[in-house]
Automatic annotation (TrEMBL):
Protein name listed in UniProt: SNG3 protein
Membrane keyword on record: yes
Gene assigned in the entry: Syngr3
Source organism (scientific name): Leucopsar rothschildi (Bali myna)
Cross-referenced Pfam families: MARVEL
Record's bilayer topology term: Multi-pass membrane protein
InterPro entries associated with the record: Marvel (IPR008253), Synaptogyrin (IPR016579)
């Protein structure tokens, strides 16, 4: 659920017009497209990873081989550790870019969504660990 909040808030409200003179959409995080792209990418990877491992957990009892069960558990553990690292990087990157952002009138409308993305990326570190 946290991954949906992160990539959903970035997609929906973190691309804004700087002012009425510039019609193109800019990323609210210091106008750095990489920050928005990274947050969206990690959120989508986490979402699909959760779906995959949910299905693996549903069929875990039907796995007859002990080696295959061990591989499934180790894959889940490794994926969780990897995503905890990705969320840590996302939190640091988004927080750093948000700190450098100067809020103009156009950017202030997406400020709550940016703060939500940063907050839920922090909570995602804890959840994945």
């Amino acid at each position: 659920i946290f991954s949906i909040v992160v990539f959903g808030s970035i997609i929906n409200e973190c691309y804004v017009n700087k002012d009425s003179q510039h019609p193109e959409l800019l990323c609210i995080f210091n106008e750095n497209e990489s920050a928005c792209s990274y947050g969206i990418a990690v959120g989508v990877i986490a979402f699909f990873g959760c779906i995959f491992f949910f299905v693996v957990d549903l069929y875990f009892q039907q796995i007859s081989s002990v080696k295959d069960r061990k591989r499934a558990v180790l894959l889940d553990l490794g994926f969780s550790g990897f995503l905890a690292f990705l969320w840590f990087v996302a939190f640091c990157f988004l927080a750093n870019q948000w700190q450098r952002t100067t809020l103009t009138r156009g950017f202030s409308q997406g400020a709550d969504a940016a703060r939500a993305a940063i907050t839920f990326s922090f909570f995602s570190i804890i959840i994945w660990v």
